[in-house]
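User: I'm designing a mutation panel for PAS domain S-box and want to avoid disrupting the core. Could you give me a predicted structure to guide residue selection? Please restate the sequence first so the numbering is unambiguous.

Assistant: Good idea. Sequence first, for numbering, then the predicted structure tokens:
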Amino acid sequence: MAMNQRIESLYHRSSEPSALQPNGELLPIAFKELGTASEELLVALEQLAEQQQQLVESQNQLEAERSRYQSLFEQAPHAYIALDSDGTITSVNRAATRLFDCTHRLLLHKPITILVPIEARREFREELKRRQQVEDDQDWPVRLYSPHREPFEAALTLSVERDAWGNIISTCLCIRDISEHQRAQAQKKKHTEDLFCDRPRHTFSKGENIPLQPDALWLICKGWVKLSTLTENNGEVMMGIAGKGIPFCRTLTALPIYQVKALSQTVELITIPHMEMAHSPHLAQLIAEGVTQRLQQSELLLCVCGRRRASDRLLALLQVLKTIIGEPVATGTRLSLRLTHQELAEASCTTRVTVTRLLSEFQHQGKITIDNTNHITLPEEYS
């Protein structure tokens, strides 16, 4: 800007009659100004060249990053498909082409619904739009197909990219074929049913004590039972709640006093001799899965007992019970069993009177609701 002003000033001076001096004073001034302008132009050119080099280096770095991420995208073990804001496929990786047994060319620039059976496309579009809006990252079970393979069951997860104004730019779908897993689960269920269909069932009513057998374990087929022990002051301590598929027996505890009581109106059990498990891998696996659930539940209950305040312990206990015996309802999660205040007190290391007071406070605060059948429900914000 300064250089332009100096040149313009020099031009005006040369145009004035007084500037046409015989001694030629204007010419040296002009040369000096032009020399200064030339130097400034050289400096500007050097700065532009440096900036150009920086831009080239940045472009090369971006290209290297893009290439690296593209390579990761291509080599990912799961199938990935990227969509634009209209649901059109913009890129697919190798795993996706293998999953659908087709080339990139057959998938690119096509609507994602071409991979969905015709009768389910409308429902798929609506669910896709809903999940994009709420950014639901939970598994989405969908039946997919391609012209080159039979329809199969898949699990989809979404990740959504938005611009600064919150508009959807692109959506990436991770697609996993779960048909083999479902077949394995169905086969496992059939084996389990075959294993237990001919065994006699033993029925117990609510409140009945269930005797433990020295050479066999009980496996729950229906209902819920409470596992507990007694302290030296004859106080009962709840050790857990067990439901369908959970085993219990004398050899699974180190407690000298261990008792089991039916919590449901009807509890159905079968007995499995210890010796039989050694000769049946499927049975041993089934029992191991049940024992694992018991172990995980015990850890959750231990965390409850570690809290200092009684209100924190009781609220944490309700959260644990939600994971064990909760069932979804319109207003939240409802505990399917009605535990007495004394049983809640035993599990939360407090007194029955304290539990009664705290439940009333929780209800007043909106942390729980209690219906006319005395079932506790945890609202959505506390579920």
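For picking mutation sites, this is relevant: The chain is about 45% helix and 25% strand. The two ends are 67 Å apart (CA to CA).
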